[in-house]
Design a protein that fits this description.
Chains A, B: Residues 160-182 are annotated as: Disordered. The structure is a homodimer. Chain A is of the alpha+beta class. Chain A has helices at 71-83, 142-154; strands at 4-7, 16-19, 25-26, 31-40, 43-49, 58-59, 62-64, 87-98, 103-112, 123-130. In chain A, strands 4, 5, 6, 7, 8, 9 and 10 form a seven-stranded mixed β-sheet that branches. In chain A, strands 1-2-3 form a three-stranded antiparallel β-sheet, with no helix packed on it. In chain A, 35% of the residues are buried. One zinc ion is lined by residues 2, 19, 21-22, 24 of chain B.
């Protein structure tokens, strides 16, 4: 395997991961997460994670955008992979920056394009929850809270400007609470 | 340098770039571009590119998001680097997917936070243009057209849902015209 160390390549102005053996530069770029709040009537779709981080906690169907996908295509693929759901995207609900881990999340608002859902390989369980039944103490990530609140705030209304980070974590730098299962 | 070939790593379901010598997997992830339409009154700020691709053509201040930045921080940094402008971001104007090259672009609407602008190292020239004076034939990328049209359509109004790709290039797969300087 390559033996990476941090140094500033010639002509650059930032530290990168450079291989000591062959000089290969592994640029670390922020990753793009695409996902959706999928609802039916008053209920929203959540997936209980079968994988780490945060195995056993509930999340939205979301994951890394792949090459050659549009953001919407990626969100539809993730809903299929994680929740075996065919979704119809309405529009962009929220954009969150999680600077601590170099992520930007694009969260869409969606409904079902076809009936049915089931746990995909990365989910232990998939279910629709009424707002009052959402297992808030068992939500996987802060941004899932944020997205659900944004969904609730816009419920029954046309989508406007997307939500962004809440003021208490404007840069997405607050780590998960200790003992949160990570 | 590593000797990459395309193959499907164990446990994966897509072709990746894998080094023949050491097995290192160079995941290709979509890149996130952050930029802004910066305006003063009726005029918008454009930069004439001093670097390839599309050297000599006009573009918005925009570039790759870096690790540990929020999307807004990245857009402010790019406005400073390329146009020596301190900008105040109002909100998200557009989200474009350029699937052909694995890019998602987040384009903000912004004004000047402080007076003044000048060409940074990657720009030959920076200028404010009235709508009627925009050098349409010398615009660097289709998405710059799209962003300027979205800006014009929303001018004088609060930002609503962000614009996305136009129907004629819904996935961002139409290549640049031949002889366009690439
Ligand atoms: Zn190496
Ligand atoms: Zn190697």
């Amino acid at each position: 395997m390559p033996d990476f160390h941090r140094s500033i390549p010639e002509g650059d102005d930032k530290e990168r991961l450079v291989c000591r053996d062959c000089g290969f530069i592994a640029y670390e770029n922020p990753k793009l997460i695409v996902g959706s709040v999928v609802s039916e009537g008053e209920r929203v779709l959540l997936c209980r994670r079968a994988i780490n981080p945060r195995r056993g906690f509930w999340t939205l169907p979301a994951g890394f955008l792949e090459m050659a996908e549009t953001a919407e295509e990626g969100a539809r693929r993730e809903a299929w992979e994680e929740a075996q759901a065919r979704i119809a995207i309405e529009g962009l609900l929220a954009v969150f920056s999680i600077a601590r881990i170099g992520q930007v999340q694009l969260i869409f608002r969606a409904g079902f394009a076809a009936p049915g859902f089931a746990a995909g390989p990365e989910s232990e369980e998939v279910a629709l929850f009424d707002w009052a039944e959402i297992p808030w103490a068992e939500i996987a990530f802060p941004s899932v809270h944020w997205a659900l609140r944004a969904w609730r705030a816009a419920a029954g209304r046309p989508l406007g400007a997307p939500a962004s980070n809440p003021p208490e974590d404007a840069r997405g730098t607050v780590p998960l609470p200790q003992g949160s299962g990570l």
